[in-house]
Design brief:
By secondary structure, the chain is an all-alpha fold. Helices cover 80% and strands 0% of the residues. The protein contains three helices and no strands.
């Protein structure tokens, strides 16, 4: 009879240990799922950030291309301002024949 009691007690100990082990496994699975969810969220945030940076880079490249195009269009244009010289103010530059009155 004592042997039966020992086996019964031992079986109860094993059942309790298995229950604790099962609870521990469930907790580990939950932690893994939480970590996986966080990894997916982080990956999505990084993907969004990379897409935004690529879009910004493309916009900057387009703006630079427009500036280069405008610069190339105006590269041959030269605006030169000169003030009148004293000589221009004192005498007419037209030929004397053009100044004769009829």
């Amino acid at each position: 009879r004592q042997r039966q009691m020992c086996i019964r007690d031992r079986l109860e100990e094993v059942r309790v240990a298995l229950d604790k082990y099962t609870v521990g496994l469930h907790e580990e699975v939950k932690n893994c799922k939480d970590a996986q969810r966080e990894a997916v969220e982080t990956k999505q945030l990084l993907t969004n950030f990379i897409e935004e940076m690529n879009s910004t880079l493309i916009n900057h490249e387009e703006a630079m291309n427009e500036l280069r195009k405008k610069n190339n269009e105006t590269a041959g244009t030269c605006l030169l301002y000169t003030s009148p010289s004293p000589r221009d103010l004192s005498t007419s530059r037209m030929p004397s024949s053009a100044c004769k009155k009829k």
